[in-house]
Design brief:
The chain has 251 residues and is mainly alpha-helical. The chain has ten helices and four strands, in the order H-E-H-H-H-E-E-E-H-H-H-H-H-H. The chain has helices at 2-6, 21-46, 51-66, 68-75, 119-122, 128-151, 157-160, 169-196, 205-230, 236-246; strands at residues 17-18, 85-86, 98-100, 106-108. The two termini are 33 Å apart.
């Protein structure tokens, strides 16, 4: 496994350490800083000259505000990794970082970490479950690009996934199918990782999945700020992820 390959059980920079409560607080604080910055950027867009863009930005901002408490509750799942190992991880793991060779070997590339983070922060040791969460977030991007293609929509097509009351019969069938695919991919990937990992043998599966959701929310908040800053046409992809993760499991 990737994380086993990155682990050195001897003293040194690749040795695993314990993820502390202070580590968890720092990660949560950084995520909430991303959220606050995103809200400020949305407020600026809402006052812009383009009526269509300003309306969407205002609606997105209002939606996030209504879910603020639930966002923070989901983010609190990070605390479930306190006391578990933190180690050198990929730190920006998603489907685009995995190459499949003709020999059916899988290669992991681009270990530089997330581009918006300072270099020192990129080298921070993290719980391996964060890599699991960031990979699962990339499943959401697959869902959205498939939805965009199926509906013939533009970059704002993701907004319609948040507006179920406006779906046509055809859109509802497409949306339900894609959402079911994403949920199944997340479930299978998470369970397969936990089954094979030596890092979380003592962690209750329910706590592990709560932690993965917490780290997925942390990643989605990073994505939201990143897209607002660099690709504002894509903001509804992480926004839909934030709102979905903020729902209570099973609702």
């Amino acid at each position: 496994m990737l994380h086993e390959a990155l682990l050195d059980r001897h003293p040194g920079p690749f040795q695993a350490e314990a993820f502390t409560a202070e580590d968890g607080e720092a990660a949560t604080k950084a995520a909430l800083t991303n959220l606050s910055d995103s809200l400020r950027r949305l407020a600026a867009l809402a006052k812009g000259p383009d009526d269509s863009t300003s309306k969407l930005a205002a609606e997105a901002r209002a939606l996030v505000f209504t879910a603020r408490d639930r966002i923070e509750r989901t983010l609190a799942g990070i605390e479930a990794t306190v006391g578990t190992p933190k180690a050198v991880t990929h730190a920006d793991l998603h489907l685009g970082q995995v190459l499949r060779t003709d020999a059916d070997l899988f290669l992991f590339i681009d270990f530089e970490g997330e581009p918006e983070r300072p270099s020192l922060e990129r080298s921070r040791k993290l719980p391996p479950l964060r890599d699991v969460a960031t990979m699962e977030r990339s499943f959401s991007y697959v869902k959205h690009y498939a939805w965009r293609e199926a509906t013939g929509g533009d970059a704002t097509a993701a907004w319609r996934l948040l507006r179920r009351q406006e779906w046509s019969t055809v859109e509802e069938a497409e949306a339900r199918g894609l959402q079911a695919w994403e949920a199944a991919a997340i479930e299978r990937y998470g369970r397969a990782y936990l089954r094979r990992s030596n890092f979380y043998e003592s962690l209750d599966p329910s706590d592990a999945f709560r932690a993965i959701r917490g780290w997925a929310m942390e990643k989605a908040l990073y994505e939201f700020r990143y897209e607002l800053k660099h690709r504002p046409q894509n903001i509804f992809i992480p926004l839909e992820g934030i709102m979905s993760l903020a729902q209570e499991p099973g609702t």
